[in-house]
Structure formats: structure tokens, C-alpha cells
């Protein structure tokens, strides 16, 4: 299933999503898009899951170990062990236990390292702290998207919708109509996901665990919404 917006308020950590949806919960209305309808891609399709479109890139370039000239001269005797040791040291990754500081860069670096390491709660906490401290930064909408993505991936769709809805008041979004429209589209997508899961009575399962047939139904309804919006 394709993903809509991956573009970034601070709250307590989200509890694990319940696998038993309440049958009395009414489906949440899907907002109407405020701008022009979505453009199809090169294959004539309108991509689903907008959250995947705006994610930060968090790549780190590993450094290279210096070459020891003395070791090269004696490579017949010790080259293999020396090379193995250098390779292990160069590839060793230390996962920090806390951000180096409360600067925006350090909080984001820490959050992405934790996210890549699979420590999603630590990443979520760091992104939330960054958004709380730097709400007037141009990065704030993207921090909100990272938070929403992590919540979506654990099945906390209500919290993800709330984060994106509240973030529409961010200064960076008030000054960027196009980006704000992407938030509207993503909120609509998440509501379609939530309502479909409720209708199918499968619970708020993590996004990656949604059954394929339900994913296709979600994507079809989302494309229909965008065509009509």
C-alpha cells in the first residue's frame, strides 16, 4: 500500500493500541480538501498514504579508518587480522542513551538514530520534545509528520490525527498553503484507515499489519476521495 504524507505537539508517550475496537465508536468524518484535486502519477495512479511523501532523510556517512603504513609493510604476516580489526572498529555503531543537547539538530539526530535502531518510543519522545521546543521553526511541520508516522506505525491512529490537526496552527503551515493542504490530505487518509478498520472490526492494528484486502479497500476509498475532493 502506498503511503500519503511523510513531511513534523508534545505529549506523553502513546499507549499500545487496543486490538479490540469499540463497536459503539462512530466513524470519523473525512475532511474535504481545500485546494485542487490530486494529480495522478506517471502511471495514471493517485498515490495512497501521503505520510510517506514527506519524511526526513536521516542518512549517516560512515568514516574511513586510516591506513597504517607499518601494517602494510608486514601484510604477509598480520594483514588479515589488522584489516578485520579495522573493519570492525569502522562499522561499530554506538547508540546514544540521550541527546547531546536540547538543540534542534541534536534532538533530531538522536531521534533518527533511535528510529533507525528500532527504538521507536525513544524516537517519538525526542521528536515530541523537539516540536515542543521549536514550534516556530521551519522544521516544525516535518517534526509533526515524523511523530504522526511513528504513531501510525503502532496503530495509534487517533493520536496521529490529533497531532496533525493541532499542528495546522503552526506558523510554518499558516504561511505555506501547499504544505497545509498536504496535512488536510493526510488527516483524511488516516481517518479513512481508522474508519475502515472499525468497519471491518479488526482493531487498530499497526499500519504494516493491516491485511492486504483491507489495504486495497483503504487505498481505493482514498483515491475516490481525492478524485471527488
Automatic annotation (TrEMBL):
Low complexity composition-biased segments: 1-23
Biased composition (Basic and acidic residues): 33-46
Bias (Polar residues): 54-64
Xref: InterPro entries: TPR-like_helical_dom_sf
Residue numbers spanned by region Disordered: 1-70
Protein name from the UniProt record: Tetratricopeptide repeat protein
Organism of provenance: Anaeroselena agilis
Amino acid at each position: 500500500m502506498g503511503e500519503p504524507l511523510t513531511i513534523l505537539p508534545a505529549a506523553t508517550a502513546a499507549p499500545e493500541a487496543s486490538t479490540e475496537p469499540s463497536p459503539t465508536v462512530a466513524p470519523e468524518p473525512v475532511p474535504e480538501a481545500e485546494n485542487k484535486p490530486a494529480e495522478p502519477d506517471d502511471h495514471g495512479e493517485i498515490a495512497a498514504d501521503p505520510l510517506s511523501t514527506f519524511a526526513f532523510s536521516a542518512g549517516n556517512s560512515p568514516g574511513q579508518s586510516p591506513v597504517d603504513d607499518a601494517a602494510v609493510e608486514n601484510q604477509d604476516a598480520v594483514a588479515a587480522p589488522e584489516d578485520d580489526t579495522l573493519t570492525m572498529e569502522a562499522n561499530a555503531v554506538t547508540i546514544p542513551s540521550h541527546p547531546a543537547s536540547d538543540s534542534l539538530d541534536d534532538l533530531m539526530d538522536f531521534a533518527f538514530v533511535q528510529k533507525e535502531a528500532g527504538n521507536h518510543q525513544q524516537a517519538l519522545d525526542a521528536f515530541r520534545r523537539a516540536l515542543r521546543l521549536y514550534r516556530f521553526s521551519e522544521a516544525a511541520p516535518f517534526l509533526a509528520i515524523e511523530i504522526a508516522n511513528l504513531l501510525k506505525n503502532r496503530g495509534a491512529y487517533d493520536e496521529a490525527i490529533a497531532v496533525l490537526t493541532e499542528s495546522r496552527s503552526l506558523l510554518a503551515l499558516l504561511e505555506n498553503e501547499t504544505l497545509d493542504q498536504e496535512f488536510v490530505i493526510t488527516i483524511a487518509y488516516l481517518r479513512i484507515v481508522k474508519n475502515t478498520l472499525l468497519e471491518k472490526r479488526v482493531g487498530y492494528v499497526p499500519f504494516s499489519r493491516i491485511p492486504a484486502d483491507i489495504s486495497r479497500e483503504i487505498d481505493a476509498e482514498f483515491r475516490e476521495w481525492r478524485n471527488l475532493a
